[in-house]
C-alpha cells in the first residue's frame, strides 16, 4: 500500500519487516542497555542517576527509531545495533557485577 | 541522498501517524478537555455552589471520617480549592473486604462536612482518567497502549519535522478549498504553529509514566525498586499503629503553619496515617495549583500532639526536572489565561492528528484505480476517521447530556453516564460503516453539532442554572461552559456544511499536481 517512492530507500516487505524489528524490540533492548549504563555511570547519586537516565531514555529510543529507518543497509543496521546492545549491555552487566546494587 | 532521507522519514511519519492515530486523537480530545476537569465537574454537579474555607472544610471532613471510618489505616483529604467547592475524602480500610468498590471508601462532602446530595457523577475526572487509563480494559494494559501511542507520536513528530523542507513558510501557508493541498496545509499549520507544545506534551506525557515504560534506569542501581522510592521521597515511611487511642489534634493550625512555611501557598492534599492512634501522623502537601512542580513540598505533624515533625521537599536536580516535566504536562499550576492557552494548544494537537488522518485518505483517493470501490484498507481508514473524528466528540457531548437527563436516583448512575459516551460513539461507528462515506461524514458531524447544541438547551430545561439565569447571576463558569458547547456545535455544523457543499473534482485532473505529494 505504501507509495512507490518508499521502496527505493526502505526496501521491500522483508526490508521493512527487518527495520521494524530493529526499530522496536532491538531498539528497546539497546535503549535499556544505554539507560542502565547512564544510571550506573552518571556522576550523581544513584537515585538521581536512575531518574535522569529514565528521563533521557525516551529521547534515546526515538532517535534510534529514526536511525533504523534512515540507514541505507539493513545488514549494517542490524550489525550495528546488535554490537551496541552487546557493548552497552556488557558494560552495565560488568558494572553491576563488580559494584553491586542497592 | 538528502531527498531520499526525506522520503524515508515521510513514510515513517505516515505510518507511525496512521497506526495509532485514532487512539492519539482520543487522547488529545480527552486530555484537552481534562485541562478543565474541575470546571467540568462543577458543571456536572449543578447542586454544589459557593465557596468554602479549606481549613473549615477539612476540619469538618475529619469529623465526618472519625464517625464513618474510625478504623481506617489512612485517610486522604483533598480540601476545596480555587476551582472546586467540595471536599473529596478517600480512605484505606484496615482490612480490605472482597467486592469492595470505589464508592465504598470515598465520599464527596460539602464545606460543613455533610455528605452532599450531589448527583452521582464522575465529572471531569473521568475525562482525565480516560486520557491515560482508557476504559473497559485493565488499567495496566491501557497505560502500556497509551505509552506506545505516545512514543509513536514522538517519532511521528520528529520524522515530520525532518520531512519538511520549508517549515517556516508553512506558518503562512493555508490554502482553502484545494482538496488534498488544503488538508496538507492545515495539517502543517496546526502542527508547526504549536510545535513546541506538541513536543513538550508528548515527551512529558511519557515522563508521567516513565518508570512503567522504562524500569531499567532504576533496576540498574536498585535490586528493590522500593529502595529507590524511599530515597527520592523520604517521607513515605509509615509508622506502626500503637494500639493506644488518642484523639487527633486540630488540623486547622497545621494547615496555617504549612501555608506560612511555603510563603502563603495553599495546602492541596492531606494524608492522615493511623487516625485516632497515638502514632497518628498528618502530612500536608502543597497544592498543585501553586507551583509548576508536581511533587510539592510536604510538612508532617504528629497527629496526636500536633507537633511539627519535619518538612521535606524532593531533593536532587533530576527529581526536580521530572517534577516540573510532569507539572508542565498536567498544567495544574496554570491560571485561567494559561489554562485557555493549554486548551487551545490541545485543540491544535487534536486538529493536527485529525487532519493527518484525513490527509492519508485525501492523498490516496486520487490514486484509487476505481474511486467508487476503494480497497479494504482505504475503506477501513475512511470509516474509522468518520467514527473517531465525529463520533468521539459526539460521545463526550452525550456524556454531558446523560448527566442532565439520567434519573437522579438511578442505580450506578455515574457508570451509565460513561456507558452513554461509548454507546453514542459505537452508534456513530455503526452509522459510519453503513452509510456511503461522504454521507457518513456529513451525518456524523451533524450529529456531533446537534448534540453539542443540545447541551445548553437541556441544561436550561433541567436545572435552574441555564444560560440566561447564569448571565443574570454572573455565574461565569456556567456561562463559559454553555458558550463553549455552542462554539463546538457551530464548528461541527460548519464542518458538516463544508463536506456537504464540497464538489469533488474528476479523478484524472489531479495527477498533474502530483509534485505536492512529498509525503508519500
Layout of strands and helices, then pairs:
The complex is a heterodimer of chains A (102) and B (520).
Chain A: H1 4-10, H2 13-41, H3 46-68, H4 74-99
Helix pairs in contact in A: 2-3, 2-4
Chain B: H1 2-19, H2 21-34, H3 37-44, H4 54-68, E1 74-78, E2 87-92, E3 106-109, H5 123-133, H6 139-163, H7 180-193, H8 195-208, H9 210-213, H10 216-219, H11 225-232, H12 251-261, E4 267-273, E5 281-286, E6 298-302, E7 308-312, H13 317-330, H14 336-365, H15 376-389, H16 391-405, H17 413-434, H18 437-462, H19 467-473, H20 476-501
Helix pairs in contact in B: 1-6, 2-5, 2-6, 2-14, 3-5, 4-12, 6-8, 7-14, 8-13, 14-15, 15-17, 15-18, 16-17, 16-18, 17-18, 18-20, 19-20
Structure characterization notes:
The complex is a heterodimer of chains A (102) and B (520). Chain A has 102 residues and is mainly α. Helices cover 83% and strands 0% of the residues of chain A. Chain A has four helices and no strands. Chain A has helices spanning 4-10, 13-41, 46-68, 74-99. In chain A, helix 2 (13-41) runs parallel beside helix 4. The longest helix of chain A is centred in the first third of the chain and has 29 residues, at 13-41. Chain A is elongated. Chain B is an alpha+beta fold. Chain B folds into three domains: 1-45 and 122-233 and 317-325, no CATH class; 50-120 and 235-312, no CATH class; 366-520, no CATH class. Chain B contains 20 helices and seven strands. In chain B, strand 4 (267-273) and strand 5 (281-286) form a beta hairpin. In chain B, helix 1 packs antiparallel against helix 6 (139-163) and helix 18 (437-462) packs antiparallel against helix 20. Residues 506-520 of chain B have low confidence and may be disordered.
Amino acid at each position: 500500500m505504501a507509495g512507490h517512492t518508499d521502496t527505493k530507500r526502505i526496501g521491500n516487505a522483508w526490508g521493512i519487516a527487518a527495520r521494524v524489528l530493529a526499530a522496536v524490540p532491538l531498539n528497546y533492548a539497546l535503549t535499556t542497555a544505554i539507560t542502565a549504563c547512564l544510571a550506573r555511570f552518571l556522576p550523581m547519586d544513584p537515585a538521581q542517576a536512575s531518574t535522569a537516565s529514565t528521563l533521557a531514555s525516551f529521547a534515546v529510543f526515538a532517535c534510534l527509531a529514526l536511525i533504523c529507518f534512515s540507514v541505507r543497509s539493513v545488514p549494517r543496521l542490524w550489525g550495528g545495533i546488535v554490537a551496541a546492545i552487546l557493548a552497552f549491555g556488557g558494560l552495565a552487566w560488568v558494572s553491576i557485577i563488580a559494584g553491586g546494587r542497592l | 541522498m538528502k531527498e531520499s532521507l526525506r522520503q524515508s522519514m515521510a513514510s515513517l511519519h505516515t505510518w507511525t501517524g496512521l497506526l495509532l492515530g485514532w487512539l492519539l486523537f482520543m487522547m488529545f480530545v480527552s486530555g484537552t478537555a481534562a485541562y478543565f476537569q474541575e470546571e467540568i465537574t462543577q458543571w456536572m454537579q449543578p447542586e454544589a455552589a459557593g465557596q468554602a474555607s479549606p481549613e473549615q472544610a477539612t476540619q469538618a471532613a475529619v469529623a465526618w471520617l472519625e464517625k464513618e471510618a474510625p478504623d481506617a489505616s489512612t485517610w486522604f483529604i483533598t480540601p476545596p480549592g480555587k476551582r472546586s467547592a467540595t471536599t473529596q475524602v478517600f480512605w484505606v480500610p484496615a482490612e480490605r473486604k472482597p467486592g469492595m468498590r470505589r464508592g465504598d471508601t470515598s465520599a464527596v462532602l460539602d464545606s460543613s462536612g455533610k455528605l452532599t446530595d450531589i448527583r452521582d457523577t464522575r465529572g471531569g475526572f473521568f475525562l482525565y482518567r480516560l486520557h491515560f487509563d482508557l476504559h473497559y480494559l485493565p488499567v495496566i494494559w491501557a497505560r502500556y497502549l497509551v505509552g506506545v501511542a505516545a512514543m509513536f507520536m514522538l517519532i511521528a513528530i520528529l520524522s515530520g519535522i525532518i520531512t519538511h523542507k520549508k517549515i517556516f513558510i508553512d506558518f503562512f501557508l493555508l490554502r482553502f478549498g484545494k482538496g488534498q493541498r488544503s488538508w496538507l496545509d492545515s495539517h502543517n499549520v496546526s502542527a508547526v504553529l504549536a510545535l513546541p507544545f506538541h513536543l513538550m506534551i508528548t515527551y512529558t506525557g511519557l515522563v508521567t509514566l516513565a518508570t512503567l515504560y522504562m524500569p531499567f534506569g532504576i533496576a540498574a542501581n536498585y535490586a528493590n525498586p522500593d529502595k529507590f522510592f524511599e530515597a527520592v521521597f523520604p517521607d513515605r515511611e509509615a509508622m506502626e499503629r500503637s494500639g493506644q487511642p488518642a484523639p487527633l489534634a486540630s488540623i486547622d493550625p497545621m494547615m496555617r503553619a504549612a501555608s506560612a512555611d511555603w510563603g502563603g501557598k495553599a495546602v492541596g492534599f492531606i494524608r492522615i496515617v493511623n487516625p485516632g492512634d497515638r502514632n497518628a501522623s498528618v502530612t500536608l502537601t502543597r497544592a498543585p495549583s501553586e507551583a509548576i512542580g508536581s511533587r510539592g513540598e510536604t510538612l508532617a505533624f504528629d497527629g496526636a500532639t500536633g507537633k511539627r515533625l519535619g518538612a521535606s521537599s524532593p531533593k536532587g536536580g533530576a527529581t526536580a526536572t521530572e517534577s516540573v516535566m510532569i507539572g508542565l504536562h498536567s498544567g495544574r499550576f496554570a491560571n485561567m489565561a494559561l489554562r485557555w492557552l493549554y486548551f487551545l494548544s490541545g485543540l491544535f494537537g487534536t486538529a493536527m492528528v485529525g487532519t493527518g488522518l484525513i490527509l492519508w485518505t485525501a492523498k490516496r483517493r486520487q490514486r484509487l484505480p476505481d474511486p467508487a470501490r476503494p480497497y479494504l484498507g482505504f475503506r477501513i481508514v475512511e470509516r474509522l476517521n468518520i467514527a473517531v473524528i465525529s463520533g468521539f466528540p459526539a460521545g463526550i457531548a452525550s456524556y454531558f447530556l446523560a448527566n442532565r437527563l439520567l434519573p437522579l436516583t438511578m442505580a450506578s448512575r455515574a457508570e451509565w453516564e460513561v456507558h452513554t459516551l461509548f454507546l453514542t460513539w459505537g452508534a456513530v461507528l455503526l452509522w459510519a460503516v453503513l452509510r456511503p462515506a461522504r454521507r457518513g461524514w456529513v451525518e456524523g458531524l451533524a450529529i456531533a453539532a446537534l448534540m453539542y447544541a443540545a447541551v445548553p438547551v437541556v441544561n436550561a430545561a433541567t436545572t435552574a442554572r441555564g444560560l440566561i439565569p447564569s448571565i443574570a447571576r454572573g455565574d461565569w463558569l456556567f456561562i463559559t461552559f454553555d458558550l463553549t458547547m455552542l462554539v463546538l456545535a457551530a464548528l461541527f455544523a460548519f464542518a458538516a456544511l463544508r463536506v456537504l457543499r464540497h464538489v469533488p473534482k474528476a479523478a484524472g485532473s489531479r495527477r498533474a499536481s502530483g509534485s505536492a505529494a512529498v509525503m508519500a
